[in-house]
Specification:
Elements lengths: L1 E5 L23 H13 L3 E6 L1 H9 L6 E4 L12 H8 L9 H8 L1 H10 L7 E4 L7 H4 L6 E5 L13 E2 L2 H15 L3 E5 L5 E7 L6 E10 L8 H5 L1 H4 E5 L3 H17 L5 E8 L5 E7 L10 H8 L4 H13 L4
Parallel strand pairs: 1-2, 1-3
Antiparallel strand pairs: 4-7, 5-6, 5-7, 8-9, 8-11, 9-10, 11-12
Helix pairs in contact: 1-12
């Protein structure tokens, strides 16, 4: 099969002076791109490295074509940026991997995702979304209870998250909200902090064919208190990922993760992140519809390896689910 590969490469972008230090976080490294290309070619496919949104537009305008696009492009601007490349591909009737523009846009917006989850009675921490420069009404915020957890509403890869994301007083809340507004120029998600264990559930497939690949418990090493951007970047030394051996817990996490995945019409592969509350009840934190795919560094391949699934098998299964949508 002739496959085009779309992605945003970290080294292609020089952030503006005013951009956050983790601006590049969701973009791919050369090593990740090479790993995916090598896997696709090892599976017998003819791979064309297209690149980012602008490169895709030029590629199509020149009259080039592919059978399917393996899409990892994050897009550039706006809360629906992950939908930009898939939107172009749909307009050109070119099939591609992972979720469609609507699902990608919804799942990047954490507040909207939680609203939909709550409507279906899928547990997620209580929350509020604070638009930029909104007046803070503590009468609305205080009932969530202290401590609270704050993060940008439309970012991935734990951008904007460090140990200061946990706040336990009104002054700390105000300071963190102002900082997030200033750095990320978007709404801030304020949610009840859950003190329990944290997990990420790998999911493969679409609709009724979706299944749980495996579950990893996320345990921080050393002085780290939050699974934030730095912890993900330096996970080899700061994080431990272990399989879950409690059958009842595996069943609960799997049931909730699959319900969320199917409710949001997620496709092909990704992750659902969950955390336990003070009573040991699992809640969905967010849904990752464009999962990282570095062969040893990213969560989904780590889960696959724990389950005895090779990187080549993982890429092949993601691709096979997408190929079912080809005419």
């Amino acid at each position: 099969m002739k496959i085009g590969f779309t992605y945003d490469l970290r080294s292609d972008y020089k952030p503006a002076d005013y951009a956050p230090s983790d601006y590049y976080g969701e973009f791919e490294t050369e090593e990740t791109v090479s790993s995916i290309v090598d896997a696709l070619r090892a599976l017998g496919h003819d791979v064309t490295q297209i690149g980012d949104l602008e490169s895709l537009v030029s590629f199509l305008a020149a009259g080039n074509s592919v059978d399917l696009v393996f899409n990892m492009a994050e897009g550039r601007y706006g809360r629906a940026r992950e939908a930009q490349v898939p939107g172009i591909l749909e307009a050109c009737q070119i099939p591609y991997t992972f979720s469609d523009p609507l699902t990608l846009a919804i799942c990047l917006d954490k507040g909207l995702t939680k609203q939909i989850l709550q409507s279906a009675h899928i547990p997620t921490p209580e929350y509020l979304v604070l638009p930029p420069n909104a007046s803070l009404d503590m009468a609305q915020i205080s009932p969530l209870g202290w401590p609270l957890f704050l993060k940008p509403n439309c970012e991935g890869t734990s951008k904007g998250i460090d140990e200061k994301a946990i706040v336990d007083s009104e002054p700390a809340l105000l300071k963190r909200v102002e900082w997030l507004w200033g750095e990320y120029k978007q709404s801030v998600l304020v949610e009840k902090y859950l003190p329990g264990r944290e997990f990420t559930v790998g999911v493969l497939g679409t609709d009724s064919q979706s299944r749980v690949l495996g579950i990893a418990e996320i345990t921080l090493i050393g002085k780290s208190k939050v699974y934030g951007f730095v912890e993900k970047e330096e996970c080899e030394s700061l994080v431990s990922y272990t399989a879950v051996d409690n059958n009842d817990l595996v069943e609960e996490l799997s049931k909730i993760a699959l319900a969320a995945w199917r409710l949001l019409n997620c496709r092909d592969g990704g992750r659902v992140d969950l955390r336990l509350d003070e009573n040991g009840r699992a809640h969905v934190l967010e849904i990752n519809t464009l999962p990282g795919l570095h062969h040893t560094h990213s969560d989904l391949p780590i889960i696959a390896a724990q389950e005895g699934v090779s990187y080549l098998q993982l890429i092949d299964e993601i691709l096979s689910h997408a190929a079912q949508r080809m005419r």
